[in-house]
Design goal:
0% of the residues lie in helices and 58% in strands. It has 115 residues and is mainly beta. β5 and β6 form a beta hairpin. The protein is globular, with a radius of gyration of 13 Å.
Length: 115
Amino acid sequence: QVQLVESGGGLVQAGGSLRLSCAASGSIVGIDVMGWYRQAPGKSREWVATITIGGRTGNADSVEGRCTISRDNAKNTVYLQMNSLKPEDTGVYYCHMAVRDIEYWGKGTLVTVSS
């Protein structure tokens, strides 16, 4: 059974940094993309950043210049380095993985940015 486990969330002051990690475990063959989504209180889930198996990255305009996604293919792990955090970055951050036509989600890690 495939599992995604996030870590690294927490409480941070505005302007601070956090590094989120997501480790995938189980019978995984042929990961296409891994990435991060977030859901702020009272809002729908939104895309944050994605990285392909080949290392191509993309991120939302809202985090442009502040977030960097990376991955360790050997460890099936994806990271999200977040800098210059703002209160509007507060939310639950979910790890996402696509393996061919199947999508997997983690349970999320809470990021709270205080002003």
